[in-house]
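note to self — DONT lose this again. spent like an hour looking for the file last time. sequence + predicted structure for the chain T wanted, 118 res
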Amino acid sequence: MEIRFNNRLLITFTFLFIVIFSLITLKFIAFKVILGFILLFILPFYLILDNFDLDMEEKIIFSFFIGVIFFSSLVYLIGNLFGVRFSIILTFIILIFSNLFLKKFIFKNKNKSNKDIE
């Protein structure tokens, strides 16, 4: 007998458990840290990976690791030129606009070429 979970439900409950546990043990500061981590590290790369044909779990895991590596490196490089707070905001804006650019120009043209072939 195989037990299968709904992946979205499992991810939602896991996220809620982490948030509630952090609120109980570490109060509101831990909640802000987790929310900031999700917004800055995971969300931009999840939106970029959403253009590819990947499962939701793969997008979350890949966006986590890419975010830890790429976002931190970009913040460090921009932080050498400007302040660290400004570089965090600028990096987030760059990543969101790169997602919009990918969706508007690159993947739009890819979908058109696939329709032409069919």
